[in-house]
Amino acid sequence: MNSPRICHLPDICFTREQTERRVGIEIEISGLGYQQLVQLVAQLLGGTAVQTSRYVSRVETEYGSFAIELDSDPIKDLDLQDDDLPEAIRELGEQAMHLIDAAAEKIVPLEIVTPPIRFTDLERIEFLCNQLREAGALGSREAIYYAFGLQLNPELPDLRTATLLRYLRAFACLYDWLKTRHQLDISRKLTSYIEPWDNLFVDRLIEPDYAPTLSELMVDYLRDNPTRNRALDLLPLFAHLNPNLVADYTSDHRIKARPTLHYRLPDCDIDNPQWHFSTVWNDWVVLEQLAHNAGDLAELMTAFRNSRKLSLRNLTQSWPDTCQLWLQSQGYV
User: Fold this and answer.
1) Do the domain assignments include residue 221?
2) Within a domain: residue 249?
3) Predicted structure pTM score
4) Are strands 262-264 and 150-154 parallel, antiparallel or unpaired?
């Protein structure tokens, strides 16, 4: 008999074209040296490591190509022959580079970027995260300057406007609940990193008669959220669908067009024994299930709209608590 899956599967695991849905994952950690992390990932996944440039390596595995890199372009691109560097640093040569490397690995996250992983293969990511913890990987809680994150880039079943609208509405309803499900580290609280959607957009989105065209939906979002700094960042998806329209609202060169959502979690608590990748993923699956149950989504949207009105009940009961009780009553959690 097969053991139950640790990483749950949503009801919709295939795209409209009948290919298995996939998700890209970005994991930021510290506590391990760069070369140590590269070798460990290669060992754990049975892959072959190839360094492609300074502080950038790829590990080729049966699941695809994993990128391991230091999450700092200035350090990755550092050139000791650069005339803009102080002369004292240039004269120290490799000795200066070693000092810079040692300092960087203590305060700049190392990032693991997975290839698009099939939902059915996510148990391997759970294994990887657990083994990294055992090897000494550190997450956000270790120090106030460790504002490390975890990001999910789930492929959508299709790119129809109605589908996008359901996912966006489900996220709007569940955002506060999702946030309370994961430790919001003090390093995140002290920064403006990862903001919710603008309230004007949320209010428009959850109106029952809101039925935009794709262009109208994109314009409504871009007008109020022309930034990557959103918990569910839609700029990569919209840049894939209509790059010219996105360019009208932002010129951020870091936007990478792709046909996925981009979910930024507030932290990566990998060194906490109670933290698991599967917990993060399974909470996302709750959103997946809600997005594909029209009746439940409409019911939760009504409750969410009511929670945003001024009333005595709303002053005494929080929306995350109300949401948790509703999800339990409907069998989602």
Assistant:
1) no
2) no
3) 0.88
4) antiparallel
CA distance 172 to 291: 11
Residue range of the domain that includes 105: 21-137
Neighbours of 115 (CB within 10 A): 15
Mean pLDDT per 10-residue section of the chain, whose length is 333 residues: 84 97 95 92 97 90 95 49 51 50 64 97 97 91 64 97 98 95 54 78 97 98 96 97 97 94 88 92 98 98 93 78 97 96
C-alpha span between 328 and 286 (Å, rounded) = 11
The DSSP annotation for 220-276 comes to: HHHHH--SS-BSEE-HHHHHHH-HHHHHTT---TT----SB-EEE-S---TTSTT--
Q: How many domains does the chain have?
A: 1
Q: Is residue 209 part of a domain?
A: no
Residue 163 lies in a domain: no
